[in-house]
Write a structure and sequence with these properties.
32% of the residues lie in helices and 25% in strands. It contains 14 helices and 21 strands. It has helices at residues 14-25, 41-46, 48-66, 81-105, 166-169, 186-197, 217-230, 285-288, 324-338, 367-373, 388-393, 421-433, 438-442, 453-462; strands at residues 5-10, 30-34, 109-119, 122-127, 135-144, 148-150, 163-164, 178-182, 201-205, 233-235, 238-246, 249-256, 263-267, 269-272, 276-278, 311-313, 352-354, 359-364, 377-383, 399-405, 411-418. It binds 1,4-dihydronicotinamide adenine dinucleotide. 1,4-dihydronicotinamide adenine dinucleotide binds next to α6, β11 and β17.
């Protein structure tokens, strides 16, 4: 069949725009359809990027308030929240404009409007914000990359002012006196940290008896201990059962997860951060006969093809961790598959990061997963208190933990809490991608003095021969 495009990608988040660029690099004629008036999806517009701007700015504020004096720098910082929000907005603008530039550079046609699948070869676009008539685009293949949306709680209305999702929590116009965060996942802890640093009293309610489900338990306990020291308070094993809000504030009822005595709490702002759900509304999936699983994820095969030939799906709309970089990898893989290559994603090596201070980062198997699978392993652990650079910088909280197969020494997982571990995790992913062993890592020369030496020391510790401990 011949069509105007080889590929139409619906959605321009990190999955969609990366897929479009890779496909264009491989010679395909590509178009993207985006309902927002800027590219980049949730991540760039209302997720990863703006949250990192606020995390960065508030970290500096906290340092200026509490750490500069020890270094002999006298300052009296004063918060200008409006300016901080402008800093965030400018950062987002730079990023979304960067994507627009890349799409143009790669000669990708862009259609701003709501896309719906009419058939495997036709996509309807209803232009955003204009009273113009829908257009129909012809194509040989379609990739759905429409991402995810906030998961709500039954009976609780998110007004994005007092009861907010991550979207509202990124643009509060004043610092709440008290904020209650529902859900101790990445969003709750990152945005809870932002507002705690700016002066809010932050209390976290979590259904499970631990924070950060899915991450290594030892790592989760360490970061919880540190966040508690910073002033965050936690109610684990608890659920929100009721929430009333008006101009005076929010009144909550909380119960133990397994039921029991009700407690009451008040807050100025409640952040609901209990997960995200795949976003496929208005896409025409039912009409096109595309199947989803019980949780709303689009069913795909190993080549990311839905049950309808010619229609593919990637990123948050399919199973797996809802992470921008996972979506990007899938975007590249599907573009390569469509161009006749062997696109592939190694799901064993997808890093995950919590951007608090200190940060937490993980790649590979957790200790709990290894125990459950009956895999025998050695543990090498090295604390930042014994790392020269961390000591001199006075950023000694946290550790690096390496899990290596007992028989082969192959690295199975690396988990870190500490300064800048969002960057350090990359070397862990590289060694795992190459099937490396703890010995390989231990024999790699690491520059001194750097925080990365803690990784080498943890690798040495697998064989009980760390030097600086
Ligand atoms: P999450 O799934 O990470 O955490 C949600 C938490 O809420 C869980 O701990 C869960 O047990 C808890 N929960 C669920 N229902 C509850 C209830 N009724 N009462 C109390 N607790 C309850 O979800 P989150 O933090 O909303 O993030 C959404 C997605 O966005 C995740 O998939 C995450 O990976 C992604 N994301 C990633 C970031 C990063 O990589 N740093 C940053 C922000 C989001």
């Amino acid at each position: 069949m011949s069509g105007a495009y080889d590929l139409i990608v619906i959605g321009t988040g990190p999955g969609g725009y990366v897929c479009a660029i890779r496909a264009a690099q491989l010679g395909l004629k590509v178009a993207v359809v985006e309902k927002r008036t800027s590219f980049g999806g949730t991540c760039l517009n209302i997720g990863c990027i703006p949250s990192k701007a606020l995390l960065h700015a508030t970290e500096k504020y906290e340092e200026a308030n509490h750490k500069f004096a020890d270094m002999g720098i006298k300052v009296s910082p004063k918060l200008d929240l409006k300016k901080m929000m402008t800093f965030k907005k400018d950062g987002v603008k730079g990023n979304v404009e960067g994507v627009a530039y890349l799409l143009k550079k790669n000669k990708i046609d862009t259609h701003i409007g709501h896309g719906a699948i009419l058939s495997p070869s036709r996509v309807e676009v209803v232009p955003t914000g204009k009273e113009s008539t829908p257009i129909v685009l012809e194509t040989k293949t379609i990739v759905i990359a429409t991402g995810s949306d906030v998961a709500g709680l039954p009976g609780i209305k998110i007004d994005e002012k007092r009861v907010v999702s991550s979207t509202g929590a990124l643009k509060l116009n004043r610092v709440p006196k008290k904020m209650i965060v529902v859900g101790a996942g990445v969003i709750g802890l990152e945005l809870g940290s932002v507002w705690r640093r700016l002066g809010a009293q932050v209390h976290v309610i979590e259904y499970l008896d631990r924070i950060l489900p899915g991450m290594d338990l030892g790592l989760a306990k360490e970061i919880q201990k540190i966040l508690k020291k910073q002033g965050l308070t936690f109610d684990l094993g608890s659920k929100l059962t009721g929430l009333k809000s008006d101009d005076a504030g929010c009144r909550l009822t909380i119960e133990p997860a397994s039921g029991g005595e009700v407690t009451r709490a008040d807050a100025d702002v409640v952040l609901v951060a209990v997960g995200r759900i795949p976003f496929t509304q208005g896409l025409g999936l039912e009409e096109a006969g595309i199947t989803k699983d019980q949780r709303g994820y689009i069913d795909v095969n190993a080549q990311y093809q839905t049950n309808v030939p010619g229609i593919y799906a990637i990123g948050d709309v399919i199973k797996g961790p809802m992470l921008a970089h996972k979506a990007e990898e899938e975007g590249v893989a599907v573009a390569e598959i469509l161009a006749g290559q062997a696109g592939h994603v190694n799901y064993e090596v997808i890093p995950s990061v919590l951007y608090t201070w200190p940060e937490a980062a993980s790649v590979g198997k957790t200790e709990e997963q290894l125990k459950q699978a009956g895999t025998t392993y050695n543990v090498g652990k090295f604390p930042f208190t014994a790392n020269g650079r961390a000591k001199v910088n006075r950023t000694t909280e946290g550790f690096i933990k390496i899990l290596a197969d007992k028989e082969t020494d192959t690295i199975l997982g690396i988990h870190m809490v500490g300064p800048n571990v969002s960057e350090i995790i990359a070397q862990a992913a590289v060694i795992m991608e190459f099937g490396g062993s703890a010995e390989d890592l231990a024999r790699t020369c690491h520059a001194h003095p750097t925080l990365t030496e803690a990784v080498k020391e943890a690798a040495l510790a697998v064989d009980k021969r760390a030097i600086h401990m």
